[in-house]
Amino acid sequence: MTTKPTAAVVGAGIAGLASSIALRRAGWSVVVLEKSQFRSEVGAAISIPPNATRVLSRWRFDFDKCGAVPNVASRFYHAATGETVMYEEYEDIEETMGFQSWSLHRVDLHRGLKGIATLEDGGLGEKVDGADVWSGQSRLIEDFTGKPSEVRPMGRSIYRWLVSMDDVLADPDLRPIYDGKLPGFKSWRDPVKEILWVSYTCRGGKVLNNAVVHPTQAGEGDDDLWHSHASRDQVFAMLENFHPAVPMRIVNLASEDGIKVHHLFKRPALTSFVNGRAVVIGDAAHVMMPTHAAGAAIAIESTAALEVLMAGVEAGDHTTLAKQLALFDKLRIPRCNFTMLASNAGPAWLAVPGVEQEIRRFYHGPLPPAGAMPWGHQFREALFNHDAYKAAEEALAESVA
Ligand SMILES: Cc1cc2nc3c(=O)[nH]c(=O)nc-3n(C[C@H](O)[C@H](O)[C@H](O)COP(=O)(O)OP(=O)(O)OC[C@H]3O[C@@H](n4cnc5c(N)ncnc54)[C@H](O)[C@@H]3O)c2cc1C
Question: H or E stretch including 209?
Fold first, then answer.
């Protein structure tokens, strides 16, 4: 009789749930330790491009049941003039990349993953020693890297709020922006104050998600990591240079306490995601700005690699485990660090001094040209047209040849 190898997964966020699904599919027994009881989730949506929906589809994730809305167009407006500076449709993304690009409410994505992970409630409410998996005080990451934590606030924060699409469509000025348009990003960018307001629908098109990335203001977001309150006046003051044609009334549609603000963090790229028999996945490995809406997607990719590489490992076989984890690093360090460094550099990315050199420390594949826009065709090709299963299977075959 053989015993299954066992993994402990710390944290049941998107990365933890996806890891536990992947490892179970690889034949492992999994224990999930999550400090919270999930009474609340972050009230915001998330876009999941084909590099990750490929993985979720293999797991039979039910996109329809989770209210997923296709994300097949991206429009950037100049915030000060209201003019369109970029518009791209990618309705053929499923045809060309094999899988759809979807937007979901985070709670719905989480619930869908939790259903597949068949997580026992017993795993919740278990805090593993260490303050938080990725925050500045994290002992877990310090233990993992053997260095003091280098996570720092970026000086950038996000206002986020959800509004009903019925309310948006009832407004004669807002209606033309969304009604009858292909679903996807509608974004307003103020390059002077470096503000980016991104909106898109989720929950079957019934809810509009809004996120305004902006320079952190004194005192905001300090009460709570995720759930600090921001007033409408705070948001209006931040958007003071925005053209009147910009849909400012969407701010008014937020409920009185409906706008939340949280800080964004960054950390230098890790040179390895592996330490002995431990591996970091998700924001613990590569916390990033949401420039390319890619943090969760790249984490889900990593779990597909884990699924392939861990399938051949037997309980107690630490030699094979070490070999497969070395392959994991070889596959994932270039992809994850490229995505993180490009995201953290913001839309101007290659114009930011030192960014290209830093990316080239880890990643030697083709780079989108300077000026390539987030979710524009060059970045879609670089970030989304990737089959993590195939890459892992090929690396594995090569390693045994
Ligand atoms: C505004 C914004 C928009 C974004 N949009 C997108 C997008 O459109 N597409 C995309 O792919 N990505 C997006 N991202 C990135 C994405 O949200 C993250 O990459 C993803 O949620 C990270 O998941 P995670 O599981 O690694 O971390 P988390 O979601 O932070 O989960 C960590 C879990 O670990 C638990 N935990 C922490 N410490 C302990 C402990 N000591 N013991 C036990 N449990 C613990 C926590 O309670 C939590 O549940 C966005 C990010 C932001 C900020």
Answer: strand 207-215
- Is residue 295 within 6 Å of ligand 1 at its C-beta? yes
CA of 317 to the centre of ligand 1 (A): 31
Q: How many whole angstroms separate alpha carbon 8 and alpha carbon 129?
A: 13
pLDDT digits (tens, 9 = 90+) for 43-100: 689 999 999 999 999 999 999 999 999 999 999 999 999 899 999 999 999 999 999 9
Show Cβ contacts of residue 155 under 8 Å, excluding neighbours closer than 6 positions: 215, 216
3-state secondary structure of 346: coil
Q: What angle do CA 386, 396, 10 make, to 5 degrees?
A: 75
Task: Look at phi and psi of residue 184 and say left if phi exceeds 0, alpha if psi is from -120 to 50, else beta.
Answer: left
With contact defined as beta carbons under 8 Å apart, do 11 and 110 qualify? no
Ligand 1 centroid to 283 CA: how many Å?
6
Q: What is the dihedral of CA 211, 195, 370, 103, to 10 degrees?
A: 10
Ligand 1 center–CA 74 separation, angstroms: 24
3-class SS of residue 202: strand
Cβ atoms within 10 Å, residue 307: 25
Report the separation in Å between the CA atom of 1 and the middle of ligand 1, taken as the mean of its atom positions: 38
Q: Whose CA is nearest to atom 9 of ligand 1?
A: 293
Residue 127, ligand 1, Cβ within 6 A = yes
Task: Tell me the mean pLDDT in the region 391-397.
Answer: 97
Pocket-testing residue among 46, 259, 383, ligand 1, by greatest number of atoms within 8 A of Cβ: 46
Set out the domains of the chain in order of their start, with CATH numbers. Answer: 6-70+100-151+268-400 (3.50.50.60), 152-265 (3.30.9.30)
Please state, in angstroms and rounded to a whole number, the distance separating the CA atoms of residues 65 and 210.
22
Strand 6-10 relative to strand 29-33, pairing: parallel
- Side-chain half-sphere exposure of 120, counting CA atoms within 13 A: 9
Read off the pLDDT of residues 229-252 as tens digits, 9 standing for 90 and up.
999 999 999 999 998 777 788 999
Instruction: List the beta bridge partners of residue 161.
Output: 210
Residue 295 alpha carbon to ligand 1 centre in Å:
8
